[in-house]
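tool=predict chain=A
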Amino acid sequence: MPVVRSSEAVVHEIHGARFVSYAAPRTGSRELAAWRVEIPAGSGGPAHRVSREEVFHLLDGELVVTVDGRTERVAAGDTVIINPGATLALENPADRTATAWVTTSVGLEAELADGTRLTPPWAN
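tool=predict ok
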């Protein structure tokens, strides 16, 4: 039974956000990837199209989430489901860091508007 201690989580930083990886193939997960993302106050990431479904549960703070052109403000306790092929953008307009738990299936890729493809290590 794989157990990932908080001290063993792997941290990745990209586009100003911090991704703390817990479940991924390198930690023993075969099908799912799960991580905590921390989005600093006043920041946001670039819009990107996701190849797999993501379940995004906001633990703390608030975010402005845009999925396929539809924008919603979400707060702690809210969950956003992003379907495969959807374009996602996140912004944190608040004055404190927003923290979320994200789960997807292993193999997630993200495609930026310029065609750049990312294979995030926390989901592969």
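Residues 53 and 83 are 5 Å apart (CA to CA). The chain has a mean pLDDT of 96.
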